[in-house]
Amino acid sequence: MHRHPANLFFPELTPKPVCLPFFSGKVSAGFPSPADDYIEKTLDLNELLIQKPAATFFVRAEGESMLGAGIHPNDILVVDRSIEPVPGKIVICALNGELVVKRLKRQAGQWLLGSENPAYPDIVLHEELEMVIWGVVTSVIHPV
Predict the structure, then answer these.
(1) Given pLDDT bands bounded at 50, 70 and 90, which one contains residue 3?
(2) Contacts 24+ apart (CB under 8 A), 53-57
(3) Active-site residues: which are they?
């Protein structure tokens, strides 16, 4: 992985497989259930998280405006530049030179960058704002 300014990380174009055991049974988040004691296959995290390596980068989130979307401070976001940024998608964009993560919205003919926390207002896009969408967030890597 190559590190670039602004906490951006780019995956290797030919990532080495990281194959880990993948158990076929599901883990109960409610009541305990009998465990399955066998491995169905292995799982390569590159294959799971990165569909197009040349169009993918990682960025670390900060702030709490996207908590409702499951994005917490210090989470790593997987971003794909090849996906079309349509309303409803969570996007990474440069807004007046600052990187932000927001949900792209369209309401009453107006484009918005929406927060997922009621403590933070949506940003209404207008001509005076310089905005460039860098990509669409496809996954969130969240430590517990």
Answers:
(1) very low
(2) 53/11, 53/12, 53/13, 53/14, 53/15, 54/13, 55/80, 55/81, 55/82, 55/135, 56/10, 56/11, 56/80, 56/81, 57/8, 57/9, 57/10, 57/11, 57/81, 57/135
(3) 65, 102
